[in-house]
Amino acid sequence: MIREDQVRLINTAGEHVGVVAIQDALRQAQVSNLDLVEIGDKSKPHVCRIMDYGQFKYEKAKKEKEAKKKQKKIVVKEIKLRPRIDDHDYQFKMNHAIKFLEHGDKVRFIMQFRGREMAHKELGMAVMEQIIKDLEIEAIVEQMPKHEGRFINMTVTPSGKKSITGLEDEESAGIHDPDEVESDSMPDETDDLIDEDETGGVDDTDETDEDDNEK
């Protein structure tokens, strides 16, 4: 309900009529079989327009829906590692991490310890420190390496910069689109790479056991 005595009126053609009494504005809206809608309350008097309010709400909702579609979804890619990872496997995963970062995704590294490896957590921390060093151009550390039970977790976010040397040729390195990587194509472990959105939901297309990452 408009409580102003006077309003700055805009007619159905979008023309500025000027300042009129609220009764006159309401009468003009009724004559046109339309609604008087307040579209601006920061000025004195408030700005009102004669329009079809139902159509106005529909168009507004449609625009908001289109804008939401264009918003970039923040995605977190997870890469699982072992403390005694070999050089080939390490480089393979770093190539993926760089590709994810240059695509605008965050990357969460998960160092997993099993059995006697728990007695040598310094090995896992050394790998994490090497990752920070190797990704100093492409990434900014959002969450420093943190011990959580049988895991060390670290999250990095894109820096917006790209490596000078760039990535290796994907075909020669045997790297594919991350969304097309099959579980049995990963070395050593079947759940080394999984997709996850910012809320923590795991992509149903990846067959990953999330119980491994519980505290």
Secondary-structure map:
Elements: E1 6-10, E2 16-21, H1 22-31, E3 35-40, E4 47-51, H2 53-70, E5 75-81, H3 87-102, E6 106-112, H4 121-134, E7 139-148, E8 151-158, H5 170-173, E9 193-197
Parallel strand pairs: 1-4, 5-6
Antiparallel strand pairs: 1-2, 3-4, 5-9, 6-8, 7-8
Description of the molecule:
By secondary structure, the chain is of the alpha+beta class. The chain has 2 domains: 6-67, Translation initiation factor 3 (IF-3), N-terminal domain (Ubiquitin-like (UB roll)), CATH 3.10.20; 75-202, Translation Initiation Factor IF3. It contains 5 helices and 9 strands. The chain has helices spanning 22-31, 53-70, 87-102, 121-134, 170-173, and strands at 6-10, 16-21, 35-40, 47-51, 75-81, 106-112, 139-148, 151-158, 193-197. It has a 5-stranded mixed sheet with strand order 7-8-6-5-9, with helices on one face. A 4-stranded mixed sheet has the order 2-1-4-3. The longest helix is centred in the N-terminal third of the chain and has 18 residues, at 53-70. It is rod-shaped, with a radius of gyration of 28 Å. The model is unreliable at 164-191 and 194-215 (pLDDT under 50).
Question: How would you summarize what this structure contains?
Answer:
With 215 residues, the chain is an alpha+beta fold.
- Determine the mean pLDDT: 78
The CATH topology assignment of the largest domain is Translation Initiation Factor IF3
Residue share in helix: 25-40%
CATH class category name of the largest domain: Alpha Beta
Would you identify the CATH H-level superfamily of the largest domain? Answer: Translation initiation factor 3 (IF-3), C-terminal domain
* Weakly predicted, low-confidence segments: 164-191, 194-215
Rg is 28 Å
* SSE ordering: EEHEEHEHEHEEHE
> Span from first to last CA?
54 Å
Total of DSSP H or I helical runs spanning 4+ residues: 5
Structural class: alpha+beta
Whole-number total of structural domains: 2
Report the β-strand fraction as a percent range: 25-35%
